[in-house]
Design a protein that fits this description.
Largest interface: A-B, 19 and 28 residues
Helix content of chain A: 10-25%
Oligomer: heterodimer
Order of helices and strands of chain A: HEHEHE
Structural class of chain A: alpha+beta
Structural class of chain B: alpha+beta
Number of strands of chain B: 5
Largest sheet of chain A: 3 strands, antiparallel
Radius of gyration of chain A: 25 Å
Number of helices of chain A: 3
Number of strands of chain A: 3
Shape of chain B: globular
Distance between the termini of chain B: 60 Å
Strand order of the largest sheet of chain A: 1-3-2
Chain lengths: 133, 170
């Protein structure tokens, strides 16, 4: 009977001394985490609920490589339920640089929202934090 | 805000709810019904991670409003099997390594369930056609196709033995 025929993962054999009949080598192993993920019990970032949690909405640049002259946040700030509107200038004042997952050449200082010039249409220009309805 | 009163069945249990008219079915299932096994990937009907069955038909739950399921029967991934007693489709995905991160998996399981109900003996091309509905960004489509082919075989065997034992009994 193959280990794939029943759905039990055997206890670790790490404490056992090397011996003959190491019959797992060269065989596919079933993953321990799969039953959890297959039954909808996995937990992802979107599943985390914290007290006083808000939702963020991102305004994305309609143009790549356009220079941001100014962003008027007054109307957004006046809306009901808005906690804060963060632009690049705001972010640069209150926090340090963030990691980037895209290549910037030449190197440039990057905040969580774009400071001066969005490199692509996907980079956010401003973030609005909203109260959870 | 407009609210709508709805009555529906979710995974076999009858429920009532009063929902905001603009509430998406995906958010309703995840947050109000506390069934977070259904995942929201793109929220505009492209990725298929949020696929659930409404009246036994697969739907993108991010493209439906909760108010639309009044009188319907909803089936989510939570209905399939528990970790201790997996559904044959889930077993096959485990054995054939049909998932890596598991984010697209609930949607894949639901379209597989629908396919195997309509067609218990699909060809590999037919499985590929159905799997192309959903995106997997671990890009392991080959193993997903293998998993569904294996699940089809398992379910055919199970129904063959069942009908065989029924035949002997009668």
């Amino acid at each position: 009977m193959s280990h794939l025929d029943n759905h039990r993962i055997p206890a670790s054999r790490q404490r056992e001394v090397p011996r003959k009949g190491l019959n797992w080598i060269g065989k596919s192993m079933k993953r321990v985490e799969d039953p959890r993920l297959l039954t909808g019990k996995g937990r992802y970032v979107d599943d985390i609920i914290l007290p006083n949690m808000g939702h963020a909405a991102f305004l994305r640049s309609p143009h790549a490589h356009a220079k941001i002259k100014s962003i008027n946040t007054k109307k957004a700030e006046a809306l009901e339920g808005v906690i804060v509107v963060v632009t690049g200038a705001h972010a640069a004042m209150v926090m340090g640089p963030t990691a980037t997952f895209w290549c910037t050449m030449p190197w440039r200082w990057t905040a969580c929202v774009t400071l001066v010039k969005p490199l692509s249409v996907l980079l956010p220009r401003a973030a609005t934090l909203l109260k959870t309805p | 805000m407009n609210t709508v009163d709805i009555k529906f069945k979710v995974n076999g249990k009858a429920k009532k709810a009063s929902v905001s008219a603009r509430l998406l079915l995906s958010d309703f299932v995840r947050q109000d019904l506390s069934l977070p096994g259904t995942h929201v990937g793109c929220e505009h009907g492209v990725c298929g991670a949020c696929t659930i069955l409404v009246n036994d038909e697969p739907v993108r739950s991010c493209l439906m409003f909760a108010a639309q399921v009044d009188g319907c029967e909803i089936t989510t991934v939570e209905s399939l099997g528990k970790a201790s007693a997996l559904h044959p489709i889930q077993e096959a995905f485990w054995e054939e390594h049909g998932l890596q991160c598991g984010f697209c998996t609930p949607g894949m399981l639901m379209i597989a369930k629908d396919l195997l109900k309509r067609n218990p003996s699909p060809t590999e091309d037919e499985v590929r056609e159905v799997v192309s509905d959903n995106l997997c960004r671990c890009t392991g489509y080959q193993n997903i196709v293998n998993s569904i082919m294996k699940a089809a075989a398992k379910m055919r065997d199970a129904s063959a033995t069942q009908s065989g034992s029924k035949g002997k009994a009668s």
